[in-house]
Amino acid sequence: MPVRQSVTIPAPLAAEVRRVAKQRRLTMSRALVALAERGVRADIDAKENLKAAYRRFLGEQEPAGKNEAGKDLIFARSSGRTLLPKIRFSDLPRGLWQHLLERVQPPELQF
Prior knowledge:
Blueprint: H1 11-24, H2 28-59, H3 63-79, H4 94-103
């Protein structure tokens, strides 16, 4: 059952919604719904990709594979709009903790 909801959106976003509505020949309301559905789907997909990358990272035993899985995990984290769950470092396996420490690199300072 549809729910009627009133929202206030910033002008630049309203202009984009208007553009999408015009392109797809939709009303503003229908364009907002379509964009919201797309955003929700993208968020769900990003979370699933992140979970899959995390499982692959934890399951990988070979150093080269672990490195690739780590890159995939970082990519999944940075490309999605979701946040990683807070890490309880005391719960991490020692090998994973060591791997994470090895991957941390201090930023290069340029003067």
